[in-house]
From TrEMBL:
The keyword Metal-binding applies. Coiled coil: none annotated. The keyword Oxidoreductase applies. One of its GO terms (molecular function) is metal ion binding. SUPFAM superfamilies: Clavaminate synthase-like (SSF51197). Keywords: Iron, Metal-binding, Oxidoreductase. Residues 198-298 form the Fe2OG dioxygenase domain. Belongs to the iron/ascorbate-dependent oxidoreductase family. Pfam families: 2OG-FeII_Oxy (PF03171), DIOX_N (PF14226). This is Fe2OG dioxygenase domain-containing protein.
Length: 349
């Protein structure tokens, strides 16, 4: 079967094929070992934000600090975002991807242009990349000057309002978390927020159709997120995995929880004390899966470097300064390649 440059996985899958096209086949060393899924005893940390504003803050800060050092990812509960809103975003995604193809194609993103807004499947500009078993809808949501809700789905009529409400809530939550993260490493609460400046926020709904050979494919290949922090919700199907001490650990789906992923820029600012999480999505033969990722990133012109406050004689800078736009361009041209992009900025002390 020919997989055209602009085709969608959902359409490929609906042809009823028994074997996946070769373009989606991962090389043997990158294929997921699905039998591992239920085994590991290690669990991604869970941080309860209940009583965030009172005497619980020390416990929360310590829990967040440990999770950022050891994992680069944690789940939060009692975060204040109504479950209704989380459900509405997941429903929006499901409705859109289950709508007729002619409807979806009205919102097609521009092929070949990195991070273009709209409905797409192939994320990278690079031609020889193994394809992800995933379709997506990307919304540009912050700053407001960058948004054009006319390009977002018109159905249901509440779709665009829900995305806007969700975008605001996720921005505030990301800022609260960045304050705790900054303080937990010994920086002023506003430190990381000020380094990032006016946040660029994208919201990406990912749709992973069932896959006839899930052991050969990946929904999303291993990567770390490029920006500062990502807030992700998933449905009950599950498939997000995080690499920890050489093992892929499945992030347990919890209806009310939000997954917090540190991005590469936070790793740089923290001078490597905190890690961005290497993660991927696996697929399954039975059920389509939805996730919604909200990225909180700097603008393209922003310079990022290790916080001078964290540099001492015993702890020299571990990363070179980078202009965020250059970092993003490298990511899209070379591919995510696990955490190779950030490793290339490392200074060998
Ligand atoms: O779908 C998921 O669980 C992961 C999504 C993700 O990592 C991303 O969009 O960067
Ligand atoms: Fe990601």
């Amino acid at each position: 079967m020919d997989v055209g440059s602009n085709s969608r996985v959902q359409a490929v899958n609906e042809t009823g094929l028994q074997h996946i096209p070769k373009e989606y086949m991962q090389p043997p060393d990158l294929r997921p070992n699905l039998a591992d899924r239920c085994f590991s005893s290690a669990q991604v940390p869970l941080v309860d934000l209940l009583n965030f504003d009172s005497n619980n803050i020390d416990t929360i800060r310590n829990g967040v600090g440990r999770a950022c050092r050891e994992w680069g990812v944690f789940q939060i509960i009692n975060h204040g975002v109504p479950t209704r809103l989380l459900d509405e975003m997941r429903d929006n995604g499901r409705n859109f991807f289950e709508s007729p193809v002619e409807e979806k194609l009205k919102y097609a993103c521009t092929f070949g242009s990195a991070a273009s807004e709209g409905y797409g499947s192939r994320m990278l500009v690079k031609e020889d990349q193994v394809l992800d078993w995933r379709d997506y809808f990307d919304h540009h949501t912050q700053p407001i000057s960058r948004t054009n809700p006319n390009r977002w789905p018109h159905n249901p009529p509440s779709y665009r309002e829900t995305v806007q409400e969700y975008s605001e809530q996720m921005k505030l939550l990301a800022q609260r978390l960045l304050a705790v993260i900054s303080e937990s490493i010994g920086l002023q609460a506003f430190y990381i927020q000020e380094v990032i400046g006016e946040p660029y926020q994208n919201i990406t709904i990912s749709y992973y159709p069932p896959c006839p050979q899930p052991e050969l494919a990946l929904g999303l290949q291993a990567h770390s997120d490029m920006g500062a922090i990502t807030l992700l919700i998933q449905d009950e199907v599950g498939g997000l995995q995080v690499l920890k001490d050489g093992l892929w650990i499945t992030v347990q789906p919890l209806r009310d929880a939000i997954v917090v992923n540190l991005g590469d820029q936070t790793q740089i600012v923290s001078n490597g004390t905190y890690k961005s999480a290497e993660h991927r999505a696996v697929v399954n033969a039975q059920k389509a899966r939805i996730s919604v990722a909200t990225f909180y990133d700097p603008s393209k012109q922003t310079r990022i470097c290790p916080a001078p406050e964290l540099i001492t004689k015993d702890s020299p800078p571990c990363y070179r300064e980078v202009i965020y736009g250059d970092y993003v361009s490298a990511w899209y041209t070379k591919g995510p390649r696990g955490k190779t992009n950030i490793h290339e900025l490392a200074i060998n002390n």
